[in-house]
TrEMBL record:
Residues 15-49 form a coiled coil. InterPro entries: GapR-like (IPR018753), GapR-like_DNA-bd (IPR046367). This is UPF0335 protein G3A50_06680. GO terms for molecular function: DNA binding. The keyword Coiled coil applies.
Length: 92
């Protein structure tokens, strides 16, 4: 037999479940978006603090980008950049 209670119409039960599930997903995403904004604000504050101590925020962002790369990927990228700079006469 069915697990649907006899006092509810058959068509209401799945719709109600889907509605509740959808609402739960939306609320979870909203909470995560709030956390993401808080973390982004914290990161912004750290960059401002570093800048206040004389560090260049643009250079810090570049270092963070480089640190995320795989060592082989980074070496390949650096070799290509060096090659292009030599071709343009930018390296001696």
């Amino acid at each position: 037999m069915s697990d649907i209670p006899y006092d509810q119409p058959v068509s209401d039960t799945p719709a109600s479940f889907a509605k509740d599930q959808l609402k739960a997903f939306i609320e979870r995403i909203e909470r995560l978006e709030e956390e993401k904004k808080a973390i982004a604000d914290d990161i912004k504050d750290v960059f401002a603090e570093a800048k206040g101590n004389g560090f260049d925020a643009k250079a810090l962002r570049e270092i963070l980008k480089i640190r995320k790369q795989d060592a082989d990927q980074r070496a390949e990228h650096e070799a290509i950049v060096d090659l292009y700079m030599q071709a343009l006469g930018m390296l001696s």
